[in-house]
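Q: Sequence in, structure out?
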Amino acid sequence: MKKKTLSILSLCIALFAAFALVGCGGSASGGGSAPKSESKEKVPVAKKTDFIWFKVEMPEGVGVSDSAGKNADRVQLTFPEDENASADRFIPVWKKALTAEESHADQAEKKGDTFQWKDGGSVEYNGRTWLVGTYEDNSGITTLLFTDVEPGSIYVLISNFDLHMKEAEALLNSIEFPDDMAEAVSEAREVEISSIEIK
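A: Exactly. Output:
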């Protein structure tokens, strides 16, 4: 009888130890060291809104406007309104026949002395080089950034960049363009902005 009680007691202690070991992340298989975790914690993948001719992460507070046209090739992004209830914008524009340098020179000529055009050199966002220019009018300072795509170039017009630097830089650091811009823009002309899922 004593042997049976001792056996049962030993079994209970062994089971308790096994459960405690498993509960602490160990292994009850009795084989030395605990196994390494096979699946590392996955970093969440940033979700980008796909406007067909560009993809971008939408920071909090940035909206979408169809005021320039209902189709995706005319999409404009809006920054949160300021105290004057003015919604500044982030407007990408594709120039099929101009390189970034040519488009920059074209805008410099158009804005010229009337709007106090200033060449801002170049900056880099997300591994992409952008030429910079600014001009001033009654709505404030507008920044234009120019980069090459295939074919042509893109410029992004940003109203009052300094007031929306956090959102503007988040957009510039996440924006992607397709390999064939002509094909993508052609497709975007057939898709209504309202049908695009904003992420």
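The chain has one domain: 49-195.
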